[in-house]
Amino acid sequence: MTSRGEDLLPSTRRALLHRIAVAQRDGRAPSLVAAVGREGTTAWSGVRTCLDGHAPDAGTQYRIGSITKTFTAVLVLRLRDEGLIDLDDPLEKHLPGTGVGGATVFQLLCHSAGLGAETPAPWWERTPGSLRPEIADVLGDRPQMHPAGHRHHYSNPGYTLLGSLVEAVRGVSWEEALRREILEPLGMHRTTSSPVAPHAGGWAVHPWADVMLSEPAEDLGIMAPAGQLWSTAEDLLRFAAFLAEGDDRVLSASSVREMRTPAAPVETGGSGYGLGLQIVGGEGRVLFGHSGSLPGFVAGLWVCAEEDVAAVALANVTSGLPAATLAAELLGIVVEAEPRIPEPWRPLPEVDDDLLALTGVWHWGTSTFTLSLTGDRGFQLTPLGGKGRGAAFTYRPDGTWTGQNDYYAGETLRVVRKDDGSVDHLDLGSFVFTREPYDAGAAVPGGVNAEGWRGLGG
């Protein structure tokens, strides 16, 4: 029931198989295919099915629903990286007449444009796309439910607009851009807009009886960028490897990191949404990916960059089997049973004595930090004792550094020198870091009281 799992321990393979067996039974799915990737290759795949003597495999197509949105987001980021659009552009600049006001491309990507979650009736997922041939048919009379930029509100029509944006700027269909710019370069030959055999059929299972109803596989038409795609476990692991590392043929590593940076907090704890990617935390790990569903199918794809592990779960049932949760659990089984072996420690290839002299203990007022030298002339600021604001900083050609995360993201770190060239203090967004707490000779917040430090009787 498994394949290509020789590099996982037998106990890990059995735990993975047991988990999908329970999921298929409890979720009452006609079939379930799952796979785990590690270090860019398929480490394990497994299948459970209700049919004797016939089973799908990691090359069988299932519909992946809203995982399609991540592909659409990649196409939009490519336009940005080529200088054809800016993420802060109002959609109207490139796609006039939509009626969504000043909603920006960025807001559409992270579901903060205020658009409605669904199209006007009838339910777009279970009816032909020909019922909604134009953007106006998708948006309806009241396209915006909330002011743009004020809150996260998941929107399927929003990704329809992004697909139309791709078509308007590229001058080709969304499907053609997808095939040419993502699927072919990544070798995802079993990912298509329409099903190509072998593929699973979609089913609904009665809530109170073990009987099934065939679900229609509608062509979503203009809504395709929000959920049209069919794919396989093997192809989705290829996509996961790309999301973890980037691929210059498609999108750079820095741009895929931007996609998985939280851009809008969702209204549940411990999660967020980037640019076409869901981001969840828990069990000491951060996962990014996407869930998906359409009538007859559920899907989940998660990646853990720190452990270089990804997991996919695909099932052909409308509801009852939480595919996204299952994929996260499969990833967790591998990470907990076989944690990644870290690379050997190696010294930096070279060292700049001036930078080395900046390392060590610094103080902001009475708070103590260490400054460590990292690769490419960068620094890591770390609060001693774990309390305080830390950040990584990357070097800029002008001799300053830019904060990369948390409170100091985007802030500038600079070295301020005395007239004789020696270091006086570090300035981080107006915060003065000195070698001594409240250094009397430093700028604010240097020592103020002329009597200096004193005890209770001083």
Describe it:
By secondary structure, the protein is of the alpha+beta class. The protein contains 12 helices and 21 strands. It has helices at 10-27, 68-81, 91-94, 105-109, 135-139, 156-170, 174-183, 224-227, 233-245, 253-259, 323-337, 353-356; strands at residues 2-3, 31-38, 41-49, 62-63, 203-205, 212-214, 230-231, 264-265, 271-273, 278-282, 285-294, 297-304, 309-315, 360-364, 367-373, 379-383, 391-395, 401-403, 412-417, 423-428, 431-433. It has a 9-stranded antiparallel sheet with strand order 1-3-2-13-12-11-10-9-8, sandwiched between helices. Strand 5 and strand 6 form a beta hairpin. The radius of gyration is 26 Å and the shape is globular. Mean pLDDT is 93; it is low at 1-5.
SSE topology:
Elements lengths: L1 E2 L6 H18 L3 E8 L2 E9 L12 E2 L4 H14 L9 H4 L10 H5 L25 H5 L16 H15 L3 H10 L19 E3 L6 E3 L9 H4 L2 E2 L1 H13 L7 H7 L4 E2 L5 E3 L4 E5 L2 E10 L2 E8 L4 E7 L7 H15 L15 H4 L3 E5 L2 E7 L5 E5 L7 E5 L5 E3 L8 E6 L5 E6 L2 E3 L25
Antiparallel strand pairs: 1-3, 2-3, 2-13, 4-7, 5-6, 8-9, 9-10, 10-11, 11-12, 12-13, 14-15, 15-16, 16-17, 17-18, 18-19, 19-20, 20-21
Helix pairs in contact: 1-11, 2-6, 2-7
Unreliable runs: 1-5
Q: Got a strand count? A: 21
* Structural class estimated from helices and strands: alpha+beta
Give the radius of gyration. 26 Å
Q: What is the mean predicted local confidence, pLDDT?
A: 93
Biggest β-sheet strands, sense, barrel: 9 strands, antiparallel
C-alpha end-to-end distance: 78 Å
User: Roughly how much helix do the residues carry, as a percent range?
Assistant: 10-25%
